[in-house]
Amino acid sequence: MKYQFRQDSRFNGANASEVGLFLEKHFPNQRPDPKKMVELAKSPRSPLHKYFDWDDSTAARKWRVHQARMMISCLYVEVDAGSPIRAYENVYIQADKSNSYLSTQKIGESQDLYEQVLETAIREISYWKLKYQSYKNYFGGVFAAIEDVNLKGVKHGKEKTSRRVNKDTCDRNKGSKNYANR
Protein backbone atom coordinates (compact mmCIF):
# COMPACT_ATOMS: atom_id res chain seq x y z
CA MET A 1 0.00 0.00 0.00
CA LYS A 2 1.40 3.42 -0.93
CA TYR A 3 0.27 6.48 1.01
CA GLN A 4 0.19 10.07 -0.23
CA PHE A 5 -1.33 13.33 0.93
CA ARG A 6 -3.84 15.18 -1.20
CA GLN A 7 -1.94 17.66 -3.38
CA ASP A 8 -3.58 20.79 -2.01
CA SER A 9 -3.34 19.75 1.64
CA ARG A 10 -1.10 21.50 4.14
CA PHE A 11 0.68 18.16 4.54
CA ASN A 12 1.73 17.93 0.90
CA GLY A 13 5.47 17.29 1.01
CA ALA A 14 5.27 15.51 4.36
CA ASN A 15 6.10 11.83 4.62
CA ALA A 16 2.72 10.23 3.95
CA SER A 17 4.12 6.69 4.26
CA GLU A 18 5.39 7.51 7.74
CA VAL A 19 1.95 8.73 8.79
CA GLY A 20 0.08 5.87 7.11
CA LEU A 21 2.27 3.20 8.68
CA PHE A 22 1.96 4.91 12.08
CA LEU A 23 -1.84 4.78 11.79
CA GLU A 24 -1.74 1.12 10.69
CA LYS A 25 0.45 0.23 13.68
CA HIS A 26 -1.47 2.14 16.34
CA PHE A 27 -4.98 1.59 14.96
CA PRO A 28 -5.04 -2.02 13.74
CA ASN A 29 -8.84 -1.87 13.70
CA GLN A 30 -8.44 0.70 10.86
CA ARG A 31 -10.32 3.32 12.89
CA PRO A 32 -7.86 6.13 13.72
CA ASP A 33 -9.03 8.28 16.59
CA PRO A 34 -7.85 11.92 16.30
CA LYS A 35 -7.74 12.40 20.09
CA LYS A 36 -5.62 9.30 20.60
CA MET A 37 -3.49 10.28 17.60
CA VAL A 38 -2.64 13.63 19.24
CA GLU A 39 -1.88 11.83 22.48
CA LEU A 40 0.49 9.45 20.69
CA ALA A 41 2.13 12.35 18.82
CA LYS A 42 2.96 14.27 22.04
CA SER A 43 6.22 12.45 22.53
CA PRO A 44 9.06 14.20 20.68
CA ARG A 45 10.18 10.69 19.61
CA SER A 46 6.87 10.10 17.78
CA PRO A 47 7.16 10.35 13.99
CA LEU A 48 4.01 12.49 14.01
CA HIS A 49 5.26 14.99 16.60
CA LYS A 50 6.73 17.35 13.99
CA TYR A 51 3.37 17.74 12.22
CA PHE A 52 1.67 19.39 15.22
CA ASP A 53 2.01 22.80 16.82
CA TRP A 54 2.91 22.10 20.46
CA ASP A 55 3.08 25.74 21.58
CA ASP A 56 -0.33 26.15 23.24
CA SER A 57 -0.54 29.90 22.67
CA THR A 58 0.10 29.70 18.90
CA ALA A 59 -2.02 26.56 18.58
CA ALA A 60 -4.92 28.29 20.35
CA ARG A 61 -4.59 31.35 18.10
CA LYS A 62 -4.50 29.13 14.99
CA TRP A 63 -7.59 27.29 16.22
CA ARG A 64 -9.53 30.55 16.72
CA VAL A 65 -8.51 31.73 13.22
CA HIS A 66 -9.71 28.36 11.88
CA GLN A 67 -13.02 28.84 13.72
CA ALA A 68 -13.37 32.31 12.18
CA ARG A 69 -12.74 30.86 8.70
CA MET A 70 -15.38 28.21 9.31
CA MET A 71 -17.84 30.85 10.50
CA ILE A 72 -17.26 33.00 7.40
CA SER A 73 -17.51 30.06 5.03
CA CYS A 74 -20.70 28.75 6.68
CA LEU A 75 -22.50 32.08 6.34
CA TYR A 76 -25.13 32.18 3.59
CA VAL A 77 -27.31 35.00 2.33
CA GLU A 78 -30.62 34.98 0.49
CA VAL A 79 -30.64 37.49 -2.36
CA ASP A 80 -33.88 38.63 -4.00
CA ALA A 81 -35.89 35.83 -2.35
CA GLY A 82 -33.78 33.20 -4.13
CA SER A 83 -32.08 30.17 -2.69
CA PRO A 84 -29.41 30.97 -0.11
CA ILE A 85 -25.87 31.33 -1.47
CA ARG A 86 -22.55 31.70 0.30
CA ALA A 87 -22.13 35.25 1.53
CA TYR A 88 -18.34 35.18 1.10
CA GLU A 89 -15.82 33.26 -0.97
CA ASN A 90 -12.08 32.96 -0.46
CA VAL A 91 -10.32 34.45 -3.49
CA TYR A 92 -6.86 35.65 -4.45
CA ILE A 93 -6.68 39.47 -4.53
CA GLN A 94 -3.98 40.41 -7.03
CA ALA A 95 -3.48 43.94 -5.62
CA ASP A 96 -2.80 42.54 -2.14
CA LYS A 97 -0.97 39.48 -3.45
CA SER A 98 -2.87 37.37 -0.90
CA ASN A 99 -6.06 35.43 -0.34
CA SER A 100 -9.02 37.11 1.29
CA TYR A 101 -12.71 36.56 1.86
CA LEU A 102 -14.83 38.72 -0.42
CA SER A 103 -18.60 39.09 -0.66
CA THR A 104 -20.36 37.36 -3.53
CA GLN A 105 -21.65 40.79 -4.54
CA LYS A 106 -18.08 42.10 -4.99
CA ILE A 107 -17.07 38.91 -6.79
CA GLY A 108 -20.01 39.44 -9.16
CA GLU A 109 -18.49 42.76 -10.19
CA SER A 110 -15.26 41.17 -11.46
CA GLN A 111 -15.00 38.66 -14.31
CA ASP A 112 -11.57 37.52 -13.03
CA LEU A 113 -12.85 36.84 -9.51
CA TYR A 114 -15.97 35.16 -10.88
CA GLU A 115 -13.83 32.83 -13.00
CA GLN A 116 -11.58 32.20 -10.01
CA VAL A 117 -14.59 30.98 -8.00
CA LEU A 118 -15.64 28.74 -10.89
CA GLU A 119 -12.14 27.29 -11.08
CA THR A 120 -12.24 26.62 -7.33
CA ALA A 121 -15.60 24.88 -7.75
CA ILE A 122 -14.20 22.76 -10.56
CA ARG A 123 -11.19 21.77 -8.42
CA GLU A 124 -13.54 20.85 -5.57
CA ILE A 125 -15.69 18.75 -7.91
CA SER A 126 -12.57 16.99 -9.17
CA TYR A 127 -11.48 16.38 -5.57
CA TRP A 128 -14.94 15.01 -4.73
CA LYS A 129 -14.67 12.56 -7.62
CA LEU A 130 -11.27 11.42 -6.41
CA LYS A 131 -12.47 11.13 -2.80
CA TYR A 132 -15.49 8.98 -3.67
CA GLN A 133 -14.00 7.05 -6.61
CA SER A 134 -14.31 3.76 -4.71
CA TYR A 135 -18.10 4.38 -4.43
CA LYS A 136 -18.57 5.06 -8.13
CA ASN A 137 -21.02 2.17 -8.45
CA TYR A 138 -23.35 4.00 -6.04
CA PHE A 139 -22.73 7.55 -7.33
CA GLY A 140 -22.59 6.58 -11.00
CA GLY A 141 -25.23 9.14 -12.00
CA VAL A 142 -23.38 11.91 -10.19
CA PHE A 143 -20.09 10.92 -11.84
CA ALA A 144 -21.81 10.91 -15.24
CA ALA A 145 -23.28 14.37 -14.62
CA ILE A 146 -19.86 15.68 -13.60
CA GLU A 147 -18.36 14.26 -16.78
CA ASP A 148 -21.03 16.12 -18.77
CA VAL A 149 -19.77 19.43 -17.37
CA ASN A 150 -16.73 20.77 -19.16
CA LEU A 151 -14.05 20.71 -16.44
CA LYS A 152 -11.25 22.12 -18.59
CA GLY A 153 -9.55 25.28 -17.48
CA VAL A 154 -8.58 24.22 -14.02
CA LYS A 155 -5.02 25.20 -13.21
CA HIS A 156 -3.03 22.01 -12.72
CA GLY A 157 0.38 23.17 -11.68
CA LYS A 158 1.36 25.86 -14.14
CA GLU A 159 -0.73 24.85 -17.11
CA LYS A 160 -4.11 26.32 -17.85
CA THR A 161 -6.35 25.22 -20.66
CA SER A 162 -9.28 27.01 -22.17
CA ARG A 163 -12.72 26.24 -20.82
CA ARG A 164 -16.30 26.72 -21.76
CA VAL A 165 -18.72 27.22 -18.87
CA ASN A 166 -22.47 27.09 -19.23
CA LYS A 167 -23.44 29.64 -16.59
CA ASP A 168 -27.08 28.46 -16.59
CA THR A 169 -25.77 25.18 -15.13
CA CYS A 170 -24.65 26.92 -11.95
CA ASP A 171 -27.52 29.44 -11.83
CA ARG A 172 -29.51 28.69 -8.69
CA ASN A 173 -31.11 32.10 -8.20
CA LYS A 174 -32.54 33.32 -11.51
CA GLY A 175 -32.76 37.07 -11.50
CA SER A 176 -30.75 37.67 -8.34
CA LYS A 177 -27.70 39.90 -8.25
CA ASN A 178 -25.13 37.31 -7.26
CA TYR A 179 -22.13 35.96 -9.10
CA ALA A 180 -23.90 32.74 -10.09
CA ASN A 181 -26.17 34.70 -12.41
CA ARG A 182 -23.66 36.54 -14.53
What does this structure look like?
The protein is mainly α and 182 residues long. It folds into 2 domains: 1-52, no CATH class; 56-181, no CATH class. Helix content is 40%, strand content 9%. The protein contains 6 helices and 4 strands; from the N terminus they run αααββββααα. The protein has helices at residues 16-26, 34-41, 56-74, 104-107, 111-131, 140-148; strands at 76-77, 85-86, 88-93, 98-103. Strands 1-2 form a two-stranded antiparallel ribbon. The longest helix has 21 residues, at 111-131. The chain is globular and about 55 Å long. It starts with 15 loop residues before the first helix and ends in a 34-residue tail after the last helix.
Strands, helices and their partners?
Elements lengths: L15 H11 L7 H8 L14 H19 L1 E2 L7 E2 L1 E6 L4 E6 H4 L3 H21 L8 H9 L34
**Which descriptor suits the 3D outline?**
globular
As a whole number of angstroms, the C-alpha radius of gyration is 20 Å
Q: Tell how many strands the DSSP assignment holds.
A: 4
Number of structurally distinct domains: 2
**Poorly predicted ranges (pLDDT <50, ≥5 residues)?**
153-182
- Approximately what portion of the residues adopt beta-strand conformation? 5-15%
